[in-house]
Amino acid sequence: MAKPVSIEVWNPNGKYRVVSTKPMPGTRWINLLVEQDCRVEICTQKKTILSVEDIIALIGDKCDGVIGQLTEDWGETLFSALSKAGGKAFSNMAVGYNNVDVNAANKYGVAVGNTPGVLTETTAELAASLSLAAARRIVEADEFMRAGLYDGWLPNLYVGNLLKGQTVGVIGAGRIGSAYARMMVEGFKMNLIYFDLYQSTRLEKFVTGMSQFISYGEFLKANGEQPVTWKRASSMDEVLQQADVISLHPILDKTTYHLVNKERLALMKKEAILINCSRGPVIDEVALVEHLKHNPMFRVGLDVFEDEPYMKPGLGDMKNAIVVPHIASASKWTREGMATLAALNVLGKIKGYPVWSDPNRVEPFLNENARPPAAAPSIVNAKALGLPVSKL
Ligand SMILES: NC(=O)C1=CN([C@@H]2O[C@H](COP(=O)(O)OP(=O)(O)OC[C@H]3O[C@@H](n4cnc5c(N)ncnc54)[C@H](O)[C@@H]3O)[C@@H](O)[C@H]2O)C=CC1
Ligand SMILES: O=C(O)C(=O)CO
């Protein structure tokens, strides 16, 4: 017997049944589905993380597609249930899809969507905010002020680090890592060192210059300033040893689990700053707590945690840690855009549209004044399922 779930229904007579496991920001995503003959059911259950059983109950006997969240465990059980209910489409409302077993989705012929591009700058901005907050000890100083402890300016009060001229290290220089790197280089005139499995040509061109434009380094030189330098490191350890601020932006998979562990923390400068806006398990959080205890000048800014929503014991007590609850993509424009892209992924598969040829070119789907293209914006297993690709 399925568990009862509370739902909100839009367009009850729609032909296709699309379920969203959470209310999502904005209404454009609902309107786009309703206009295309979908009955939209939104789970309004007062429970932050839905279990597999909760989602099975939501899927029910007939379901064409589901929009889900990164907190949910989309594996064999759910894809089997969705397929049994006639469903052919699932989309995470997230770019990361480490919560999804794509092989299981392939087995049941279910398309898996994600939402790249729309959250790149927003997430990079949070990583930059955490970098500044850690460098200038903003959270500690705010707490001090609110506690009524400020009794006058002092030369040694909350002295932090100047970013200008220091080195920023980026691990995982994809969309978000590159956007963050540019913010730190351009905004704070930091030198860059990065490590990725692949060369980040676009990022390198920005620092070194393209044929028709001068580089940022040359621009600084022309203005009588010290030009910034850049380097692609041959190993991650090189970044850890040389950088003053290090930000982690890889995907989470077997190769990046506990990428930053006890040994690697020991390689870092004693006064380094470590930022994580990727996924919690990229850092061994127990080792991190120990490192923070023994190195009071080492600081971290964390948006994600190994056992989310929990923190490992001791982390919350550390003055040299800034912790925020997985809000890196939380700007209104981005969250509404994520909802739209996720809905269009599901709709695209239901309607038999082709898959958009470049998942990073999302603007046509986000333009509120025009109809979105007849394509699914980003389907990660399109190739495995042999889905056609849009000519646009
Ligand atoms: N905290 C938050 O709210 C958010 C977190 N994220 C996380 O950020 C991740 C990255 O997102 P995007 O930049 O859009 O993805 P992306 O795919 O453009 O970039 C990931 C980069 O990591 C690199 N990489 C993979 N394995 C690596 C390894 N072992 N060592 C070094 N580099 C490696 C890839 O080559 C790629 O360049 C997502 O997968 C997600 O988990 C994304 C958005 C918001
Ligand atoms: O998109 C993601 O991967 C997130 O973590 C939330 O935006």
From TrEMBL:
Catalytic reaction list: (R)-glycerate + NAD(+) = 3-hydroxypyruvate + NADH + H(+)
Species annotation: Cannabis sativa (Hemp)
Phylogenetic lineage: Eukaryota, Viridiplantae, Streptophyta, Embryophyta, Tracheophyta
Entry's Gene Ontology BP terms: oxidative photosynthetic carbon pathway
Sample GO molecular function, one term: hydroxypyruvate reductase (NADH) activity
One of the record's GO cellular component terms: peroxisome
Keyword match Nucleotide-binding: no
Domain D-isomer specific 2-hydroxyacid dehydrogenase catalytic, residue spans: 32-354
Protein family: Belongs to the D-isomer specific 2-hydroxyacid dehydrogenase family.
The protein's annotated pathway: Photosynthesis; photorespiration; 3-phospho-D-glycerate from glycine: step 3/4
Entry EC number(s): 1.1.1.29
Subcellular location field: Peroxisome
Pfam families: 2-Hacid_dh (PF00389), 2-Hacid_dh_C (PF02826)
Location (main, coarse): other
Domain D-isomer specific 2-hydroxyacid dehydrogenase NAD-binding stretches: 130-210, 215-328
Keywords: Glycolate pathway, NAD, Oxidoreductase, Peroxisome, Photorespiration
UniProt keyword NAD present: yes
Protein name stated in the entry: glycerate dehydrogenase
